[in-house]
Write a structure and sequence with these properties.
67% of the residues lie in helices and 0% in strands. The protein is mostly helical.
């Protein structure tokens, strides 16, 4: 059963799960363990080191399709990336083999049509693996580079989005073949019915997974791409530029000079990675300095960091 409700940090986690049992798998992908008692969503996320806002953005989207564009700036990309990678591991390492065994146990090993169905399933599984392997090998490393403040000019999220698709057509065909062409005795029919039920559930799961990537991940990464400068390493600091920096921007400059990554800066200053990226863009604009090396020299010259603390 699904409840049409927008969940908030102060809601009880047990209520969220009780109303939407299909969110259970998402908990594991976020790295949230069961056994949380009567704690709120906020408390459970904190205990498990999960960004609560990102968790709720994804869960509310999965539960009832609720998502607003203005929420994009609050998505913690590291948390979202961890969730998507864990989803891949769950589906590839557990769900695909589990469904194959379930289907194999439901079919006649000597039946001609049955063998063709197994071949059909294996082709479907291979297509899913190919799709997810591309994301693991190409998309996710690209996002990790963005998190470090580096934008690759030869690739962008639009290139991924243009070719993003799942193997749901094959899965639909597989279900239709089983329904139309595999009558059998009552025992076999019960096993096939249970298998079909799981196939339908996994079709829905894959569709939701793809929607999170298309409607949350893609626009978030587009924002990151726009906020990361790929300009030359200029060092022509304008006079009075340092005084134009806000106190928070000066803190970011100091952290960069000490060699901290965007993720480490976000943690140290208790802000989101997207906010760090925005500060870096503003700093680059104000100072006309686009490289970490240039920022480091600037920070030392302007006494924002001790030379011994700067990254060598």
């Amino acid at each position: 059963m699904r409840t049409q409700k927008v969940y908030e940090p102060k809601d009880m986690m047990i209520d969220l799960i009780r109303d939407n049992y299909n969110v259970l798998q998402a908990l594991g992908s976020f790295g949230i363990n069961l056994g949380f008692g009567d704690k709120t969503v906020e408390e459970v996320c904190k205990d498990n080191g999960v960004d609560c806002r990102t968790f709720l953005i994804v869960v509310n989207f999965l539960v009832n399709g609720y998502f607003r564009d203005e929420e994009l700036e609050y998505v913690n990309v590291g948390t979202l990336l961890h969730y998507l990678q864990a989803n891949h591991k769950y589906y590839l390492d557990f769900q695909l083999p589990f469904m194959r065994k379930e289907l194999s146990d439901s079919l006649d090993p000597d039946g001609r049509v049955d063998k063709l169905i197994m071949d059909f399933y294996d082709a479907y599984a291979a297509e899913v693996r190919k799709h997810m392997k591309y994301e693991e090998d190409r998309l996710f490393p690209y996002i990790n580079s963005l998190l470090e403040g580096v934008r690759e000019e030869a690739y962008n999220i639009d290139a991924y989005a243009k070719h993003h698709g799942m193997a749901d057509v094959k899965l639909k065909e597989l279900k239709n073949i089983i329904i139309k062409y595999l009558p059998g005795d009552s025992l076999r029919n019960n096993m096939l019915t249970a298998t079909l039920y799981d196939l339908y559930n996994n079709e829905e799961w894959l569709q939701l997974h793809a929607k999170v990537e298309n409607e949350i991940l893609v626009p978030v990464i587009k924002n990151m791409e726009m906020n990361i400068s790929t300009g030359a390493d200029a060092l022509n600091v304008e006079e009075g530029g340092e005084s134009a920096l806000s106190p928070r921007e000066r803190e970011v400059v100091s952290c960069l000079a000490m060699g901290l990554s965007n993720k480490e800066i976000a943690s140290k200053l208790n802000i989101s990675i997207n906010t760090v990226i925005t500060h870096r863009k503003n700093i680059a604009t104000k100072l006309s300095i686009h490289s970490v090396a240039g920022i480091t020299i600037y920070a030392i010259v302007n006494n924002l960091v001790d030379i011994n603390s700067a990254k060598q």
